[in-house]
Structure formats: C-alpha cells, structure tokens
C-alpha cells in the first residue's frame, strides 16, 4: 500500500488494457480532466496509443486530481473538436453532452465510501465499498439462477466500480431506466458507510481512466492517493437484457415530491423579476454560471461552473433555480451534496457578498424556497 509520500505514476499498460476491455476498436473516446494547471482539458481520440500517452502525461502531473473518459458510444463527428489531442482551458460546448451519445454500452455502479469532501478514503472505507460492489456482482451473477450475468470489478481510487454490459439506445427512456436501476440497487445495497451514486445514469457521464492516479485533497498516511485500475475482468460478458433492467427499475423507491413543486405557477412577469434578482445575487457572490435556461415549465435555472460545496462538481452538476411557482432552490446532483439545499447555499453565497442579500423590496412578500 503506497504511503502519503510515495510517488504514484500512471500506468500506460493498464490504460491500454482498459481501452481494449471497455471500448470497440473504432469507438471515439473523449478524455477529460478538471482542475489541472491548465484548467479543464478535453480531447477526442481514435488513436489509442495517443490517448494512453496523453492520459499518462496529464495524470503524472501532481496538480491533476483525476483523469476521466466517456464510457458510452459517442458520435464519431466529435473527433473533429480536438482530434487525438488535449485542448487546454476549454470553454463551454466542447465536452460531450447527452444528445451526442449514440448508445449505452455500460451501466456504471459507483460504490463510494461516505467521508468528508475533498478527502481520500481510508483502507477500511475502501474495504466497505469493495464489499458492497461484491454483493452487487453476486446479485447479477445469480439473478437468473444458473444463467447470471458477469460484470467487471474496478478500483475507482477511493471506492469500487461495477461495470455491467448493456445495449441500450441513448433515448430519454433509456436514461430514465438507468436512473431507476441505480436507485433500486442503491435501496438494496447502499450501507451507512458506502453509497451507490445514483447520479451517474446519464449517457455522457464520465468515468475515471483506469491506470491513472486519483488525488483527493492532501495525501496522508491513512488517506493516501491511489491508482484507479481494473480488478477483475471475466473472460465472457453477457449483455444484461432490457427485460431484467425493467424488472429491477420497477423496484426503485417512489420519489417524494416536495409541496413547493405542486404550487400553481406565477406570472411570467413575476418570474422575470425574480430571475433578475437571482442573477444579481450570483454576480455579487462571484459565482460564475452558464446562461439562463428554461426550467420546470415556466421557471428558469443557472448551471454553476463549480459547486460551492465541492469545486470538483462542475457544470452542469450544480445549479440554482426558480420554479414556475416562484420558489427558489439549489441542487447538486452528487450524493455528497444531496443535503445542500437553498438554506445551505444562500449563506455560503452571502458570506462572499458580505451581507444578507435583499431578494425583495421592502413591503413585498418574501420569495418561497424549495
């Protein structure tokens, strides 16, 4: 086990092995890294040797937290955005979006230990995540009696991944199906110490590159940096049929809809007034964001460039919003931020502003929150 001071180096052989295991020979792959000394880096690759070489270069720099790639099939035209090379300090619109994915090839079950943000896991926390991942693999191995489905087991650096082979189109229906499957598996297998990340269902979701270094916070003897790697790759992998996924998804818990979501819509003029206030609020708080988007059938939202609770959570993962009812809110799609709502977000923003922000003029009714 590496110590906090030992130097980890990315493994080109392991990266090539993962490429051969996870991707078709002609498949285009996006490589992405956040928080590097060059900012966000993105590249699209058909040349596997060049991808492996670039992944090593970006991962061996001590300032790089992690290197990721797209797991699913993406449109081959994306190669022209940055053919077989990393672009540095890329802006909006370069990385793969859901509509640019052509097919699901994998269902990713990310078993992540519960711990403080921006920290690596301990050996005990990793062991708990591995236990949960093993239970998920056993479930699929015996789900149809003798006719089960093998899966890949991987080390994510701080937890465990289970990769199930699927074959689904990238339609909204498939996206919903994958979301419900993960919710169902989380209900069955998540523990107090390890949670299955239910947010990794969308087709453009990225996954750590196996064979690269994972750095969270500062390395310590009990919370060291580690390598993401494949642990067990079966000789054969059967595609999990849609019928079984439907059956598992049907067991997903029914979401509880907050009362604010059922409130009647307010006028477009009121939404515009509140949106203007929200944009001033974000500006004063120095929170960079993407342009205003439609939301909730009459409301609007702003995707934050980085979540204020964890800067590794990049757009579009966290956002502020105004519902059609006029209720304000904040959400980050990551499990570690699930309890961060508007009540937690507003004080963080106002700490930067230096005073309480006046969302309403004197004498007006306060804005609802959700």
Explain this structure.
With 370 residues, the protein is an alpha+beta fold. It folds into two domains: 12-249, Alpha-Beta Complex (DNA primase, PRIM domain), CATH 3.90.920; 260-353. Helix content is 26%, strand content 24%. The protein has seven helices and 18 strands. It has helices spanning 12-22, 48-59, 123-142, 172-189, 242-249, 268-284, 342-353, and strands at 29-36, 39-45, 67-70, 73-74, 101-113, 152-155, 160-169, 194-196, 206-208, 213-214, 226-227, 229-232, 293-295, 299-303, 306-307, 310-314, 318-322, 328-332. The strands form five sheets. Strands 4, 5, 6, 7, 8 and 12 form a six-stranded antiparallel β-sheet that branches. It has a four-stranded antiparallel β-sheet with strand order 2-1-3-9, covered by helices on one side. A four-stranded antiparallel β-sheet has the order 13-14-17-18. β6 (152-155) and β7 (160-169) form a beta hairpin. α1 (12-22) packs across α2 (48-59). The longest helix is centred in the middle third of the chain and has 20 residues, at 123-142. 38% of the residues are buried. Residues 1-5 have low confidence and may be disordered.
Low-confidence stretches: 1-5
Largest sheet: 6 strands, antiparallel
Supply the number of helical segments.
7
CATH level-3 fold name of the largest domain: DNA primase, PRIM domain
User: What structural class do helix, strand and pairing data support?
Assistant: alpha+beta
The helix/strand series, from N terminus to C terminus, equals: HEEHEEEHEEHEEEEEHHEEEEEEH
The domain tally reads 2
Distance between the termini: 45 Å
| Beta-strand content | 15-25%
Q: What would CATH call the architecture of the largest domain?
A: Alpha-Beta Complex
Globally, the shape reads: globular
Radius of gyration: 21 Å
Mean pLDDT metric: 89
Helix content: 25-40%
Total count of strands: 18
């Amino acid at each position: 086990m590496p110590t906090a001071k030992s130097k980890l180096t990315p493994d080109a052989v392991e990266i090539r092995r993962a490429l051969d295991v996870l991707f078709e020979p002609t498949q285009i792959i996006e490589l992405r890294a956040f928080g590097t000394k060059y900012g966000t880096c993105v590249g699209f690759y058909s040349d596997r040797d060049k991808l492996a070489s670039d992944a090593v270069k970006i991962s061996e720099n001590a300032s790089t937290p992690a290197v990721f790639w797209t797991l699913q099939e993406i449109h081959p035209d994306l190669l022209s955005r940055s053919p077989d090379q990393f672009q540095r300090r890329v802006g909006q619109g370069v990385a793969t979006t859901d509509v640019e994915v052509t097919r699901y090839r994998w269902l990713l079950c990310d078993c992540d230990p519960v711990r403080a943000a921006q920290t690596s896991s301990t050996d005990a926390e990793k062991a708990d995540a591995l236990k949960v991942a093993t239970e998920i693999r056993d479930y699929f191995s015996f789900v149809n009696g003798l006719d089960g489905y093998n899966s890949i087991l991987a080390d994510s650096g701080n937890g465990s991944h289970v990769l199930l082979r699927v074959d689904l189109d990238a339609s909204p229906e498939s996206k919903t199906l994958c979301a419900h499957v993960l919710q169902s598996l989380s209900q069955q297998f998540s523990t107090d110490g390890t949670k299955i990340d239910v947010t990794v269902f969308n087709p453009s979701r990225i996954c750590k590159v196996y064979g690269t270094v994972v750095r969270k916070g500062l390395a310590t003897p009990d919370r060291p940096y580690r390598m993401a790697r494949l642990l067990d790759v079966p000789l054969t992998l059967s595609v999990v049929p849609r019928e079984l996924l439907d059956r598992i998804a049907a067991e997903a818990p029914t979401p509880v809809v907050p009362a604010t979501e059922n409130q009647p819509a307010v006028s477009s003029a009121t939404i515009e007034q509140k949106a203007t206030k929200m944009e001033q609020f974000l500006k004063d708080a120095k929170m960079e964001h993407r342009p205003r988007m439609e939301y909730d059938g009459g409301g609007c939202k702003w995707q934050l460039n980085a979540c204020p609770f964890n800067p590794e959570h990049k757009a579009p993962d966290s956002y502020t919003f105004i519902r059609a009812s006029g209720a304000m809110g904040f959400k980050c799609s990551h499990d570690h931020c699930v309890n961060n709502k508007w009540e937690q977000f507003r004080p963080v923003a106002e700490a930067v502003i230096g005073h309480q922000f006046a969302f309403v003029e004197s004498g007006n009714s306060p804005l609802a929150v959700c």
